[in-house]
Amino acid sequence: MTTALIMLSAAPAPAAILPAAAQAGAPPSIAGVWEAEDGRMKIEMFEAGGSYSGRLLWGRRAVEADGRTFKRDVHNPDPTLRGRSLERITILQNLKWDAKDARWEGGSLYDGTSGRSLSAHMRLVQGKLEMRGYMGSPMLGRTLVFRRVPG
């Protein structure tokens, strides 16, 4: 047998390599309802065309004193949106899986109580979803930890 033939017969078949490589970089699903550990916010994460987005289901600062009536988006930089309710607005967008860093990156986070948009990334750590919102550098941001709501 020639050396080249021996090397080929000893190498694993390409089809056997591909599934393992694909699984190594496959992100876990974060779709579903998540509640902040401190109880300040509840969001619903959903797939949106190759990325993840999230909508606000409830937020302590997003509701009136009665705890049920949602405030209006009065601080929105777009004057045409200032009359809408903060209820179920999409506050997270464009979170895409980065296998190298094992997190969802490149997202934006909209804070309807201030009208500010921040950069965001998320990662799953021991079954909890850590969302980091920041302006400029992630080091200057804040992390909220969410637990999945059974459902």
TrEMBL record:
Signal sequence, start to end: 1-15
Question: What is the superkingdom listed in this entry's lineage?
Answer: Bacteria
Keyword Signal listed: yes
DUF2147 domain boundaries = 32-148
Going by the UniProt record, its keywords in alphabetical order are: Signal
Under PANTHER family, the record lists: BLL6627 PROTEIN, BLR1215 PROTEIN
Protein's name according to its UniProt entry = DUF2147 domain-containing protein
Q: Which organism is it from?
A: Sphingomonas spermidinifaciens
Q: Taxonomic classification, please? A: Bacteria, Pseudomonadati, Pseudomonadota, Alphaproteobacteria, Sphingomonadales
